[in-house]
Every structure is written in C-alpha cells, then in structure tokens.
Amino acid sequence: MRIRRFLATGVAAAAMVAFGSTPAFAEDAMAHTTDGSTWGGKANWRSYGDRLEACDNAADGMTVQTQIQTKGYGSKLLWTRGGRGSCNHLTWDLPEWSYIQIRVCLLDGNLKPHNCSRWVAGSA
Q: By the 8 A CB rule, do 97 and 123 touch?
C-alpha cells in the first residue's frame, strides 16, 4: 500500500514538473468599446501572424482607434477609415512570447476618446 502511494505521488510530481516547465502558449486578445450592447468598436489581436485588427461596428460618425503596447518594443495606434463594417489592420513582427496589451476607443470629430475598453492582455 505504501509503495503504491509513493509511486502515485512520484508520478504526479513528475507530471507537474513536465507540464509546469513547458512554455505558455501564445495568446489572442479581444476588446470592445463600452458603449452598450452595440459595441461601436472592436479590436482583435491574433498571435498567429502578429496581426492587430480594428473594426467600426456602428454608423455613428465616430472613428475607432486601437492601441497596442508592449514592454521593450513601444506602442502603435490603428484607426478605421469609414463607418459601419469597416476594418483596418496592421502586422507587427514581435519576438515570440512578447507580452502585449490592447485597448479600443471611439474618437469623436475632435479626436477626443470615448467609451474606451479596459486594457486586455495577450502575447505574440
């Protein structure tokens, strides 16, 4: 009985070491503006291909602005060009496992941000 318990504990410990030491997977991220259920703007980060996309979901006269930032590599801004259904994208070749954050806002005619999302984390 003691031998079985000892072996079971050893196998469990070995599994934790094996699985715990593997690197984390690259992680996508998505953010929405906070203007209610319509979500006037949306941002998507796709870790495969290091691609950021900003989409305008409402014909409200606002522009969608998406910001991406990462420690050690700076930040970039991306805007949509048009109204409802328009999207724009950029690719940013970052080193694998780079930590990123994205945020999306609506901009009025005076370029004042409204209804900004919280910062959402992902990785390259």
A: yes
CA-nearest of 118, 115, 108 to 38 is 115
**Fold (CATH) for 25-123:** Immunoglobulin-like (2.60.40)
In degrees, rounded to 5, the angle at the alpha carbon of residue 48 between the alpha carbons of residues 35 and 17 is 105
DSSP code, position 98 = -
Domain boundaries, the chain: 25-123
* pLDDT tens figures, 7-66: 344 444 444 334 343 345 689 999 999 987 778 999 999 999 999 999 999 888 889 999
Residue 121 — pLDDT band, cuts 50, 70, 90? very high
Cα gap 118→21, rounded to integer Å: 31
**Residue 20 Cα distances to 13, 15, 16, 17, 23, angstroms:** 10, 8, 5, 5, 8
Query: What pLDDT was estimated at residue 54?
Result: 96
Q: Give yes or no for a contact between 33 and 106, defined as CB atoms under 8 angstroms apart.
A: yes
